[in-house]
Specification:
- This protein has 21 helices and eleven strands.
- With about 675 residues, the protein is α+β, with helices and mostly antiparallel strands.
- The strands form three sheets. It has a five-stranded mixed β-sheet with strand order 7-8-9-11-10, covered by helices on one side.
- α10 crosses α14.
- It is rod-shaped.
């Protein structure tokens, strides 16, 4: 760095160095000659005063001492406040040494005339030397002044020439910079350590922000008008890391909060335009230290939107693939039952939303939402038992939307239900996609089956009637199913596995009488839905964690038993778990906390009626709603289905030991 600077300004360096050298030399020489001249003047003054003293006082002893001091050197007093140190006359006035001897000899013989004559000669020699020293000093100062002026002029000329050359280079560089800045498509700017935006900017930068003038001011204040406050705070932390020297630049690139950030630009007509800008920052090092940050901005709106579209397409393909994987392991009759039930419920919910009008009060709409939530919860359970998690999650999202409407609005109007239509539309779309996949897969199965028959027919006795019979086994539509072929047990086993893993429980399921041959067709869907809701409730609410069960002296695995059978009174369904049962005190306290009961009514509530709280819409012992429980809807679904079948239900439990739910369906189920 210093070598380049020296080569660039070598003329100025040389002239300045010469000027400084000669100036110092002049000071040294001037100091030496000035001291010598002063000594000569002082010596001449001493001689003059001694000569005057001789003329005034004559040859005295004091005069003799002064002349001896002049001869050999020493201190001589001119007055009480003035004394001078003299060197021997042999050094100061070598030519006057003999004269001084003659002066002393004349004084010894008391020859005043000869002494005055010799003293006059010494005085003249001292005056002459003083005048020579003074003249030499003046001449030296004049020469030094001329040389100093010449050298100073050389420095000024070199400086002016260098500055002129620098101005030319700077003007040329500025023109080149402006040319570059006007042609590049990136938005380029500089930031100093105070985060101030520099004046050197590319022309495209103004276009990105729809500004007619260059950007200026504090960078963080500037971007705060376009991005969120959280992004501004993160940007400040990121810039602090870049200006520091402890963290490598590449290590913090991924922390950039302004990478592909969405900004809202105000157009000239006052409308808003949402675009995506990608900010990047590079360190500018000067002598190994960060002096500035070089910022660049690119409009990446097209790339972001294209990438988002590709991701959405990819997600849709993955979702279809997951759905296809799910239906590969599901019995077609179960799918048909699910399609029929779900399609019917979704249309019923849609009709209910369309029917609500201006005359509906807040209470009417809240009751409607409770009914809708119960039906959607049924779909959620039906999807969970089949492993159709996309439907399960979609139903859960719709439940979240219903819950948000209930809690966020003090008074609910028809307009507040609009978000539900979006969720409902997505569920309709997912259902149609699933139907289409099943239809396509059915076609593949049919073709594969036909090809297999044709290939094997060359070496077998398979007839055309057999082929037609085999083709007929594939349903023509996904909605068609045979209720007597539906095996609920396998679905419940898979549900137990999924829900128990989600809730960190160890559960064993034991069933009997759940085959399609023993369950009347009209009860298949009801039995499956009730069993699904009860199993989920047992896993989440009833059966303890493995640790808690071991502490209570129970087996690590909880057991759920489901039994369905026909009796003389009708068909009976029993679902039992060996969990914690029901804590009636905790149940009453939860009802008080949720304002379902007042403390007074809770105290007066008969023991047999406490369990009725479980079927209260929206009541749950869970503090937070999750995927499997917490909204107080599951038992409400069961109650609705039991009422639809004109059946009777019964609940029994013992705290810390078991919980049992039973339903008696009347006869005449075919």
């Amino acid at each position: 760095m210093w070598k380049q600077s020296f080569l660039k300004y070598r003329g100025l360096f040389i002239s300045t160095t010469a000027f400084v050298f000669f100036f110092i030399l002049y000071l040294l020489v001037n100091y030496t000659f000035q001291n010598k001249t002063i000594n000569d003047i002082r010596y001449s003054d001493v001689i003059q005063k001694t000569y005057s003293k001789m003329n005034d006082e004559g040859l005295t002893e004091a005069l003799l001492r002064d002349i001896n001091t002049i001869k050999v050197g020493g201190i001589i007093k001119l007055s009480s406040n003035d004394q001078v140190t003299l060197v021997p006359i042999a050094k100061q006035l070598p030519s006057a040494e003999l004269t001084a001897d003659e002066l002393l000899a004349a004084i010894d013989v008391n020859d005043e005339s000869l002494a005055a004559e010799r003293m006059s000669e010494i005085s003249l020699l001292a005056i002459a030397k003083k005048e020579r020293s003074t003249k030499l000093l003046n001449t030296l100062q004049v020469i030094a002044a001329i040389l100093t002026a010449l050298l100073y002029f050389m420095v000024i000329v070199q400086l002016v020439l260098q500055l002129s050359k620098g101005d030319v280079v700077e003007v040329q560089s500025r023109k080149e910079t402006e040319g570059i800045m006007s042609t590049i498509s990136e938005g380029i700017f500089l930031l100093n350590s105070r985060y101030d935006i520099g004046s050197e900017q590319s022309a495209s930068l103004r276009g990105m922000f729809k500004s007619e003038k260059e950007l200026e001011g504090h960078f963080l204040d500037f971007i705060s008008a376009y991005v969120t406050q959280k992004n501004v705070e993160l940007a400040q932390e990121y810039l602090e890391l870049l200006f520091g020297d402890r963290v490598k630049e590449k290590l913090v690139e991924e922390l950039n909060p302004l990478k592909e950030v969405e900004v809202n630009i105000v157009r000239r007509d006052g409308s808003f335009e949402s675009i995506y800008l990608d900010f990047k920052f590079k360190r500018v090092l000067v002598e190994g230290k960060v002096s500035h940050l070089l910022g660049s901005v690119n409009n990446v709106t097209k790339q972001v939107l294209l990438e988002r579209e590709l991701n959405e397409t990819k997600e849709a393909q993955v979702a279809q693939l997951d759905m296809l994987k799910s239906i590969l392991h599901i019995d077609r009759n179960k799918l048909g039952l699910f399609f029929n039930t779900t399609d019917s419920i979704l249309h019923e919910v849609n009709d209910s939303l369309e029917a609500q009008g201006k005359g509906f009060s807040d209470g009417d709409i809240r009751r409607l939402l409770t009914t809708i939530s119960s039906k959607i919860h049924q779909i959620k359970g039906d999807a969970a038992i089949l492993g159709l998690h996309r439907f399960e999650f979609a139903a859960h999202d719709l439940e979240d939307s219903i819950s948000a409407i209930k809690t966020e609005h003090k008074t609910i109007t028809g307009k507040d239900l609009f978000p539900l239509t979006t969720n409902l539309r997505m569920m309709f779309s997912d259902l149609e996609d699933l139907k289409e996949l099943v239809n396509k897969f059915s076609g593949i199965q049919t073709v594969s089956s036909d090809q297999h028959v044709i290939d094997t027919n060359h070496g077998s006795d398979l007839s055309t009637d057999d082929i037609e019979e085999e083709d007929a086994q594939v349903p023509n539509s996904p909605e068609s199913y045979h209720a007597d072929n539906i095996d609920i047990d396998s679905s419940l086993q898979q549900l137990v596995k999924t829900v128990s893993e989600r809730n960190n429980k160890n559960i064993k399921l034991i069933t009997s009488g759940l085959s399609g041959e023993t369950i009347p067709k009209p009860l298949v869907n009801t039995i499956q839905t009730i069993a699904t809701q009860c199993v989920r409730n047992s896993i989440v609410h009833g059966i303890e964690s493995p640790e808690s069960r071991l502490d209570a002296g129970k087996p690590e695995y909880g057991t759920i038993t489901i039994h369905f059978a026909e009796t003389s009174l009708g068909h009976i369904l029993k679902i039992r778990d060996d969990g914690a049962g029901i804590d009636e005190a905790a149940l009453l306290q939860k009802a008080i906390d949720k304002s379902i009961l007042t403390p007074e009514k809770a105290a007066d509530l008969a023991q047999g009626k406490i369990k009725a709280l479980l079927f209260h819409s929206g009541f749950s012992t869970q503090n937070e709603a999750g995927m499997d429980a917490g909204r107080g809807v599951g038992l409400d679904v069961i109650k609705r289905l039991v009422d639809e079948q004109q059946a009777k239900m019964n609940i029994s439990y013992k705290k810390g030991e078991h919980y049992q739910f039973g339903v008696l369906f009347p006869q005449a189920q075919t």
